Amino acid sequence: MIARDFNEWEKPLRELEEGLAKLRDRIDKERDAASKQEAEKALEELTRRRDNIVAATYSNLSPWENVLVSRAPSRPYALDYISTIFGTFVELQGDRRFGADHAIVGGATSLDGTPVMVVGHQKGRNIQERQLRNFGYARPEGYRKAIRLFDMAERFRMPVITFVDTPGADAGVEAESRGISEAIAASIAKMFELTVPVVSVIIGEGGSGGAIGIAASNRVLMLEHSIYSVIAPEGCAAILWRKPEMGPQAAQALRLTAESAKELGLIEEIIPEPTGGAHRDPVAAAAAVKFALVNHLGQLAKMKPDAVRDSRYDRFRRIGIYS
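Request: output the structure for the sequence above.
Response:
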């Protein structure tokens, strides 16, 4: 199988969407009643065809197709969910050691009136934003910023919510020289110390240590078409077969889908996405995420602080299969 990108894979649907847009424009400009009625019937038929194709395409995705959807350029990112779900968001910058990392965003906000601390990976929409966000690859100072915010949340008894969406942590020379491995490990260790509830949502890519660095939580949730893996499929294929183009086969072997993660006990809940993926209806996707967050935080709020911390430790101790 030859690996395709998301744009090529969704090309038939995009062509239908373009046809629908042209029909709507024609209907708006049409003055003849008979011609307008004919165009409206064509619009109805094309809409039905589009909906059928979307439903069929997304009803039984392969692992590789899930990878493509999780990377969709129009898929909602952390700041999209933050602006939709929460109250006023006060973003906090810098790790107080080296500098600012824009691949991880975080700050104080509120969820239905309850103060919370939100931390998440952030990608960019255009080339300038992607460069600013380092394409979602967080550097050491990003995780050290997260640690600073986790400390603040603990001090002020604020539940923590994290949004995971990264191909992995930055493994470049500069990041390595500034201690990326130590920063991720320290972030994980800090999360295990927290006595406030922590809920993580994997909204796109959950890649390797870059993901777990802010996902050592009481509850880990995944959007239906997101992925969670120890390595990107292309990286796995390059190591095993010396052929990055064998990513689809690697995706199958990695068991990186939400269904597999739930089966393996890595996550607590799969959050359903609108038909066709979160990128087709971001508002509905955000509503589903908010419902899940309120539900899980409500359950954790009934626990005593020490029990919250101990349950998080026990959760990760239970992960794994051995004989």
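The longest helix spans residues 33-59.
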